[in-house]
Amino acid sequence: MHKGRFVAEGTPEAVFSNTSVIRESHLRLPRIARLLEILHKEDKLPLKNPYPLTIRGARSEIMRLMRQEDEEKQSEHKRRILNGDRDK
């Protein structure tokens, strides 16, 4: 609610995924979601929006990124082996 009017309706995930509505209503994202927003916008971490609202959700998203990075490193390593390390 903002000035006595409903500005959004739905689950917390649905409501907080619209950051412009949140800010226009003079509300703030939960701190963990704000941290992930900063990491995405300022540090270019490839995080998905809507940002997780809980520590459990943030942990899952961070673990997803770590697995993705590890898979990319393994693929690069395999590519180099197959190419005989020509692209060093």
Explain the overall architecture.
The chain is mostly helical and 88 residues long. It is 57% helix and 0% strand. It has one domain (12-82). The N and C termini lie far apart (57 Å). It is built from 4 helices and no strands. The radius of gyration is 19 Å and the shape is elongated.
Strand and helix map with partners:
Elements: H1 12-16, H2 19-24, H3 31-41, H4 55-82
Radius of gyration: 19 Å
The parts where pLDDT drops under 50 for at least 5 residues are: none
Give the termini distance in whole angstroms. Answer: 57 Å
* Tally of structural domains: 1
Strand content: under 5%
- Percent range of helical residues: 55-70%
Described by strand count, sense and barrel closure, the largest sheet is: none
Q: Give the topology string: H per helix, E per strand.
A: HHHH
Total helical elements: 4
Beta-strand segment tally:
0
Class by alpha and beta content = mainly alpha
- Silhouette: elongated
Mean pLDDT: 88
Summarize the structure in short.
This protein is mainly α. 57% of the residues lie in helices and 0% in strands.
